[in-house]
Amino acid sequence: MRVLRAALAIVVAVGAGYFVYNCCWKRFLCNRTELRLQSRVESTLKIMDEPKARFIARQTLDHVSTCMEVTPGNVNLYMIRAAALRILGRPAEAIADYQHALTLDRRPEIYVNLGGALEEAGREDEAIRESIVGVFLQPAMLDAAPDALKLKIDGAIKPLHAAARRRELTADMLRDIRVGLGSPR
Q1: Cα 28 to Cα 78, 83, 101, 166, distances in angstroms
Q2: Among candidate residues 49, 105, 106, 101, the one with its CA nearest the CA of residue 80
Q3: Pick from 8, 18, 73, 97: CA 20 to 30 A from residue 34's CA?
Q4: How many CB atoms lie within 10 A of CB 123?
Q5: d(CA 121, CA 88)
Q6: What whole-number distance in Å separates Cα of residue 123 and Cα of residue 105?
Q7: In this structure, is the dihedral angle defined by the CA atoms of residues 36, 39, 45 and 50, taken in order, positive or negative?
Q8: 3-state secondary structure string, 63-130?
Q9: pLDDT number for residue 169
Q10: What is the Cα–Cα distance from 97 to 103, expressed in whole angstroms?
Q11: 3-state SS, residue 41
């Protein structure tokens, strides 16, 4: 009977250890990695040395992919990976990550970053449309929009903001703006 109790205690302890490792420790490590990678990508975007930036972006992709397996619903990991892909000159893959991030969260910076990736891929109309949504949700995001598109975005967003200030903005107006720019949504 004592042997059975000891064996059961060992099995419970091993099971608890396995649970804590997989459900808590791995997530904790990935949260720390996420913060480190986010600051790394932000600093990499400021580096003018392209080979060094590409090297850091490749390392970032390796680390992010590992953490995405542990926490697949983490929007920030998709944004970090998309930024690294843009540094590597792979906007099509970055677009897919931003679009997936939008299924998880509707933050303005995701729309504006998606607009930047679309612009890099040569899809200007879609870039304007997505950037308009981000800038409408948070006007300060205009500064983060692609430089080549700022005037067009600003021109399209001013009537929306004026209508919102007059309390005349309707859901149909937003839909019409997006449909008018060729939105598939």
Answers
A1: 18, 23, 21, 47
A2: 101
A3: 18
A4: 17
A5: 13
A6: 23
A7: negative
A8: HHHHHHHHCCCCHHHHHHHHHHHHHCCCHHHHHHHHHHHHHHCCCHHHHHHHHHHHHHCCCHHHHHHH
A9: 65
A10: 10
A11: helix
Rg for the chain, CA atoms, rounded: 22
Residue 138: what are its φ and ψ, rounded to 5°?
-145, 100
**Which residue in this structure is represented by tokens 């990991």?**
77
Give the whole-angstrom CA distance, residue 148 versus residue 145.
Answer: 9
Domains in the chain: boundaries? 1-90, 106-185
pLDDT in tens, the chain (185 residues): 787 787 777 877 777 666 656 666 667 777 787 778 888 887 777 777 788 888 888 888 888 888 888 888 889 999 999 999 998 999 999 999 999 999 998 888 999 999 999 999 999 888 888 888 888 888 888 888 878 888 888 887 777 777 777 766 666 666 655 544 444 44
Query: Left (φ > 0), alpha (ψ -120 to 50) or beta: where does 167 sit?
Result: left
